[in-house]
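Figure 6 in text form: structure in, sequence out.
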């Protein structure tokens, strides 16, 4: 059929929709959308390999009936549809695999990824309270609605355990399933700990996992189930505990750097205390600079001198000064960042206190030199430069918490 024949009798929207979305891998087969009225309907075309398994059909019925009893925002309900298909809830729903490919920027936002992980923990803990295991959290088995950071789980693995060879269910996604499950052993919560660790690793594959998640992923995905967290709740608590410890460590490091910076800045402007001979000026040769300036202005006013600064000139000087403040802030921020990054490297924060102090002192010295250099270029006062530099250091230090 040529393009003209294909378009004939169809709306342009139908043709675009049909060609734009041809389906994607899903844990049970293929997830597709079909044009329906003014929107789309969601469906799963079950793979022939699964349909041919003796007990699959009965396990699927049990899963549909069991899921219907779960009334949680993370539960995505399915019902039997056309032959060999499931009908899903309506709405714009995508697999995590699709989201990562189509909109990777969403998974680069730490607020979104943290929300996704929290909603995953909510779902798994509730499932475990009801003696249900997920078993696989691969990107093609977890979904989200457009504009949301709430995970959606359409099917739960433990309903399919009676099939015997459950590996068929997770074919192509074995990396996301615990070794004991693939080996045909009886799974438990630790199997979902493994699945959760693999899912979190995927979620942070774009931006890279923060410190607390790196540690949790490593422990959760141990080959030996006894070496993992024993429950998902334990894993969640450990992540929160490590995040709090990291926050405390960052706060201490920030306070330490700021203290060094301020003290170092003070001593950089305090003159040496070497003894010098004091020479007293003759009374007739000393002129108070403030009095001299006041006398000069008074004389100018008496002469009607137009050199006195006008309101317009004052506004112009204020605008010029504001530009210098902005220039100082921008340049200081750009050049201070790589200096601070050396202080907040993980290996430096984990180093003995003596080495941390030595390394930080050298870096703080560079920050002070940078401030003095930019003060000379922009003409700011010491007080103004101190204030901006401190604000910049705090801002950059806060951002480095998630590195």
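Output sequence:
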């Amino acid at each position: 059929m040529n393009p003209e024949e294909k378009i004939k009798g169809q709306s342009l929207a139908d043709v675009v929709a049909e060609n734009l979305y041809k389906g994607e891998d899903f844990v049970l087969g293929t997830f597709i959308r079909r044009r329906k009225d003014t929107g789309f309907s969601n469906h799963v075309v079950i793979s022939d390999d699964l349909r041919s398994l003796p007990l699959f059909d009965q396990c699927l019925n049990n899963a549909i009936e069991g899921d219907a009893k779960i009334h949680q925002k993370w539960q995505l309900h399915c019902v039997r549809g056309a032959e060999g298909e499931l009908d899903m809830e309506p709405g714009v729903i995508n697999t995590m695999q699709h989201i990562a490919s189509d909109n990777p920027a969403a998974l680069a936002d730490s607020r979104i990824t943290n929300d996704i992980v929290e909603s995953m923990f909510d779902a798994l803990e509730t499932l475990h309270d009801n003696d249900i295991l997920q078993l696989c959290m691969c990107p093609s088995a977890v979904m989200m609605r457009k504009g949301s950071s709430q995970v959606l789980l359409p099917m739960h693995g433990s309903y399919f355990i009676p099939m015997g060879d459950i590996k068929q269910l997770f074919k192509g996604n074995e990396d996301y399933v615990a070794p004991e499950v693939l080996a045909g052993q009886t799974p438990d919560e630790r199997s979902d700990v493994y699945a959760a660790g693999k899912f979190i690793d995927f979620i942070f594959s774009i931006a890279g996992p923060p410190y607390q998640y790196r540690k949790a992923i490593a422990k959760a995905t141990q080959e030996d189930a006894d070496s993992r967290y024993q429950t998902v709740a334990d894993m969640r608590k450990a992540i929160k505990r490590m995040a709090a410890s990291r926050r405390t460590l960052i706060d201490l490091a920030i306070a330490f750097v700021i203290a060094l910076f301020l003290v170092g800045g003070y001593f950089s402007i305090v003159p040496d205390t070497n003894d010098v001979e004091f020479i007293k000026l003759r009374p007739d040769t000393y002129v108070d600079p403030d009095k001299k300036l006041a006398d000069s202005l008074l004389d100018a006013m008496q002469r009607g001198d137009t050199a006195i600064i006008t309101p317009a000139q004052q506004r112009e000087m204020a605008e010029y000064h504001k530009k210098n403040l902005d220039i100082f802030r921008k340049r200081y921020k750009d050049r201070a960042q790589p200096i601070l990054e050396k202080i907040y490297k993980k290996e430096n924060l984990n180093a003995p206190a003596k080495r941390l102090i030595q390394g930080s002192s050298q870096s703080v010295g560079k920050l002070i030199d940078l401030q003095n250099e930019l003060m000379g270029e922009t003409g700011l006062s010491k007080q103004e430069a101190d204030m901006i530099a401190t604000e910049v250091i705090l801002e950059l230090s806060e951002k480095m918490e998630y590195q």
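Caption detail: The two ends are 54 Å apart (CA to CA).
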